[in-house]
Amino acid sequence: MSIDNLRRFFHLTSGKWTGSFHQFDGNGNLLQKINTRLSASSYGEDELISLIQTLYIEQPQSSISISGLKEEVEWAEYKIKETNMFTVDKYQEIGFFPKERAFSLRYRTAGMLETVLRQGVLGEDDTGEESPKNIKLPSRRPSLVCENCLYSQEKDRRARAFHIMDPRGFVDMLIIFFEDRGDGPLIHPSLVDMDGQDRILPFLGKWEGHSVTKRSGVYGSTMAEADTVSLLEMDDKNKLIQDVTSKGGGRDVRTNVHWTGMITSNSVEFEGAYQLTLLPGGMYMGYPSDIAKSVAESKSFHLEFCWLEAPGKRQRLLRTYDAEGLAVSSTYFSEVRV
């Protein structure tokens, strides 16, 4: 990443964020919701500039309380490792889209997410057990932890989606941080379902848009753009048919992808061994049914996050990995329903 883009990335992420942490299983069921705050700022100059972030996690009320006294909200503090010129390429493998206001990056562990769950659910009652009751913690040795972040096109708001894959290559859990930026007292935003509407319905139909793909440094640091058309239909037996066409490049290259799948509750499984978990708030997260199988067959795989912030208008971020687990590219999509 260039120093100019690093400054832009720090400017985009800096500030005070009031948010909510949502933990889902692979079927889209909400497991935990925890209020959070995040403070981010930069220091240093030129190549020595760094981003420091502190996450504050609202703790539950203590199991021991004094009658008649209202407990004050307690916040646990967690220092996130600094981001700088060295870490962005070597460890985080950031794919950054300054104009579109989106980014993808990876984590080596799920330590931050485990801390949020322990402090936000157990609080002072945490005894340090590796597998405490009534709480699902991420694997201590995940095969992959990926963050895809999309910024609102209407508000000073963002959604950060985390795929956590277990050591076997299956989805362990899905996490969403939903955050508003501002200095004043803000209400913690929450993900909610549209009244009486199946989560799949907003995504059905024909979508047209544009994509930007940025390949990582290991793969040449190149960029490509394309026009895209996506059609998703569902019959009365819950069978889904998806056709995706992209056209771009100096040679007028056209790519067509055809998938069929079935939807059960809030989970879509395509025959191409790819799954979507439908989430509240007009979101879904996509991932391979079995990453280990893709790796064994020396195939690349991708993780996707989609946010339909307003009816008929959506953003998608897709992160592609090679069989060695290195980031190949990040692709940003902006689409409208026609």
Automatic annotation (TrEMBL):
Gene3D superfamilies: 2.40.128.20. Residues 203-338 form the Biogenesis factor required for ATP synthase 1-like C-terminal domain. One of its GO terms (biological process) is chloroplast fission. InterPro entries: BFA1-like_C (IPR048378), BFA1-like_DUF3598 (IPR022017), Calycin (IPR012674). Residues 4-182 form the DUF3598 domain. It comes from the Eukaryota. PANTHER family: CELL DIVISION TOPOLOGICAL SPECIFICITY FACTOR HOMOLOG, CHLOROPLASTIC, NMDA RECEPTOR SUBUNIT EPSILON-1, PUTATIVE (DUF3598)-RELATED. This is Uncharacterized protein.
